[in-house]
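Mods, move this if it's the wrong board.
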Amino acid sequence: VRQGGRVSQESSVREFRQAAGQHLRALAKRKRSKPHTMVQGTRLLLCLDMYDCPLHETPQQVVGHVRPPGSLQTPALISWLRTYQTSCT
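Not the wrong board. Structure tokens:
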């Protein structure tokens, strides 16, 4: 407590989340700079972006799954995004 000020629970939680976010972002950036941990760093940054976004600002857009003509396989990006989505929830 500085200069006789009071600390509220809300301000304490806000400061803690801010400090934790800074540490996690630094870790994610370090991981992204190394080839063998680049994917983990990218995932961590994406998760942090989602964590920082309040629920009322979360996009509600539904993306349709479009496949190229004649393709029976699910595109790799969609498979990866499904895995990523379940790992963040």
